Amino acid sequence: MIATGAWTNALLAPIGFSVAVEPQRGQILHIDMGETDTSRWPILGGTGEQYMLTFGPNRVVSGATRETGSGFDVRLTVGGLQSVFNHAMRVAPGVAQGTVKEIRIGLRPLSADGLPYLGRIPGHDDLVLATGHGPSGLQLGPYSGLVAAQLLLGEPVRSDLAPFAVDRDPHQNAYSGH
Q1: Per-residue pLDDT tens for 121-174?
Q2: Domain with 68 in it
Q3: E-assigned strands of the chain?
Q4: 34 and 105 part of one domain
Q5: End of a domain among 84, 109, 134?
Q6: What is the pTM of this model?
Q7: Is residue 153 within a helix (H) or strand (E), and if so which, with residue range?
Q8: Cis bond leading into 64, ω under 30°?
């Protein structure tokens, strides 16, 4: 099983295989809301570029940036912070009274066509690849994990994996949700 995110191609190099995946930096803000119970707050903006959601009983997270072309640069940037802070204040002005708990930076594995890679690696039937989920990793990851496990265990897969083929031409797919 190879599910190594933005570092996938480094792990695939020894077997002479690669996929069109690049790192995409994401900066996310964690806000402590003190005594305010945030556990029942809704997810805000979950379908747009950024979102806000609860993270424990008194914390919310706001973000995250989608910085394509960042490479493996994990710097915290002024522009990224400004984007995250502006979004938080726009969708939930009450967070202005919160305390910045932490800011995290991560690298997402972004595929060239916006679709994840999921399936067996040609010529290496004992290897299953799951990567390239980009900013949809939290939503798609659990199902991809199930499918990868089914493949590894030789169980039937009930989904058409053709759009996610690991040897596809990423320039022929039209999805651009990244």
Answers
A1: 999 989 999 999 998 888 899 999 999 999 999 999 999 999 999 999 877 755
A2: 25-109
A3: 21-32, 51-54, 59-63, 67-68, 99-111, 117-121, 124-131
A4: yes
A5: 109
A6: 0.86
A7: helix 137-153
A8: yes
